[in-house]
Amino acid sequence: MRLFNKxxxxxxxxxxxxxLVYDAAKFERMEQKDIEKIFAxxxxxxxxxxxxxxxxxxxxxxxxxxxxxDFELRHLEGQRSMVATILRLIDRGRKG
Length: 96
What we know:
Blueprint: E1 4-5, E2 11-12, H1 14-18, H2 24-28, H3 32-42, H4 46-59, H5 70-95
Antiparallel strand pairs: 1-2
Helix pairs in contact: 3-5, 4-5
């Protein structure tokens, strides 16, 4: 994966790229309840609520016209599905 820093004439950002890769093994050892609690905590503050509001606005509160391609429709539905998954995780995490 090549990432570029727009402020430095499109030079690759190597140090920051390492921070984008997460340890899948750590995730596999986590319980579903733990994941749900993490999402509930992550989005419980003011910034988290603003982020959720933004995600809902660009997905659920958006409609595509009749001229939209199949690709565009599928892409938006995928985004909506991801936001819905996040909302479910938050709800379950809050319920404990």
